[in-house]
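User: Could you check the structure of this?
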Amino acid sequence: MKLGIMQPYFFPYLGHFSLIANTDQWIVFDISQYTPKTWMNRNRILHPVQGWNYVTVPLSNSSISIKTFEARILDVEKTRESVLGKLSHYKRKAPYFSAVEKLVHDTFAMEDDDSLVHLNVRSLEAVCHYLGIPFHYKICSELDLPLPSDMQAGDWALEISALLGATDYVNPISGRELFDPAQFAARGIALHFLKTSEFRYDTGPYQFEPYLSILDVLMWNDPETVLAEILPGSELLKAA
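Assistant: Sure, the predicted structure tokens are below.
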């Protein structure tokens, strides 16, 4: 089993989905300390005039004193309307606006649930379904894993992979310095790093901005084009 482990991000960038596509099992890592003003509750889209701006999920309890799984959305309905409002300038310019608008509606259809983690998982599910990427996930806080109480940043992936019986672990290449391949090898786990290339595409009347939310990518490209970029456009490197 090839495992991927990442924090739950809000409509993350394209590389996040490349990582999902290169794994068999995905672990939503929501048991660490919550960090405000990160990709967990916001992301970037094109600004209607120039550059980019944030779409944000305001929380009722944003604080470093909580765990990520405890984060609660202040108002789900108002957040949905705010996100859709900030996306509205794409309507007459981006060819796939209607499909992306539906993705956002589906993601926020949460009834009485105000969990940020659940919202972000729903965003991953909606995008993966739209693109045809298998998405088999488990939420870490729901697994009750017997993890050591004191671990460093690079320890979580190894311990979770071992407990879940993973044969391979895949991480973005940007986090390469956190991991010791020998420690993974000693536990019978092959360590891989995913290298992705920048995806450039036509954004009509706007100036292209790299590494925006997947929402922007999907506004301008059909699912087949995005999927073709995700699979051949990424390279899986085995740690030495």
